[in-house]
Structure prediction request, 236 residues.
Amino acid sequence: MFTGIIEEKGKVKSINHGAKSAVLSIKASKIMSDVKIGDSIAVNGVCLTATTVLPDGFTADVMAETLRRSSLGSLKAGSEVNLERAMAAGGRFGGHIVSGHIDGTGTIKEFKREDNAIWVTIACDKKLLRYIIEKGSITIDGISLTVAVVTDSYFKVSIIPHTSSETTLTSKKVGDIVNLENDIIGKYVEKLLGGGSGNLDELFGDNNDTDEGKGSGGSKKSGSSFMDTLSKNGFL
Prediction:
């Protein structure tokens, strides 16, 4: 588990592509103080396992599914990447709960400066936008950020100078692809409240009268109420 607080900007030494997978070699210094083979490291928000540990960096295998879901396949020698070690048990939550499992990618549409901040507009699929809420959390290339604006086709975040200097986000260009991870809490709540289907519409959609309700002279809703669903799933 990660928190979205970037510890270091690393640099790609090489990316060796196989038929569908790849091996990534990354130069790093700060995070290497205690990294061991088998440790989890978030690279641009993607949880990877260190397979080789060297004084100046590490290597990691990247499977085909990860290349399909993320922007890692577009990296090349010299590319800067955001790095974060897995959170220690006694660590602080500086950002939010980040799993390192990318939901999809977005495309940078605009950078706009406002005094000391930089607004970043990112377009993405509606399947991702449904979990993005104003003032909620979003992980962009491994960075925990607060959503400021949400529409039906894009969202915006505002970057402070510290985040700009310590991460790669504002060094990117319009049109670049970024990795996105939605707030994990929203996804699990939807799954549980949807009775395992992952669809909240089932909770609040149209409910037809049952025969039992009609026979008793009343009208009884067939769908579970919100409170019933909370109780059924152990929240009450």
